[in-house]
TrEMBL record:
InterPro entries: BlaI_family (IPR005650), WH-like_DNA-bd_sf (IPR036388), WH_DNA-bd_sf (IPR036390). GO terms for molecular function: DNA binding. Residues 1-20 are annotated as: Disordered. The keyword Cytoplasm does not apply. This is BlaI/MecI/CopY family transcriptional regulator. The keyword DNA-binding applies. GO terms for biological process: negative regulation of DNA-templated transcription. Belongs to the BlaI transcriptional regulatory family.
Length: 135
């Protein structure tokens, strides 16, 4: 049998990350940091050998979303998580909602598609003290 060496077309492709997966990984690394850290620190903590520029792009996007904060330290920036994974998901949901012209329809559709236990939880959250009681 004639064996040919693997070529890029024959070798299995690397798994593509899902939308937002890399942001979640970067945010998780920042949440584990003992103090504000550099992008290089984050890069070393992530699997997959990501380029420094990729890490910087993700950090910048997270900063724009309000999920991380940054401060200057000499010529570098120090990064700190401002949200957890749930907070990041909430920010994404809010951004989607903000792009819609008929917010009422979007929210009504969202609520009607919830599982019953999720709808009960949402009702409890809205009825609770943080939900805006008028006392």
């Amino acid at each position: 049998m004639d064996e040919q060496p693997d070529t890029p077309a024959q070798s299995p492709r690397a798994r593509r990350r899902g939308q937002g997966e890399l942001e979640t990984q970067v945010l998780a690394a920042l949440r584990e940091a003992p103090e504000p850290v550099t992008a290089q620190w984050v890069q070393r903590r992530l699997d997959g050998g990501l380029a420094y520029t990729t890490v910087m792009t993700i950090l910048s996007r997270l900063h724009t979303k309000g999920a991380v904060s940054r401060s200057r330290s000499g010529r570098s920036c120090l990064w700190l998580a401002a949200a957890d994974a749930a907070g990041l998901a909430a920010l994404r949901m809010r951004r989607v909602l903000d792009t819609q012209t008929d917010r009422d329809a979007v929210l009504a559709s969202f609520v009607s598609a919830l599982l019953p236990q999720d709808e009960e939880l949402l009702r409890a959250l809205l009825d609770g003290p943080a939900g805006g009681d008028e006392d």
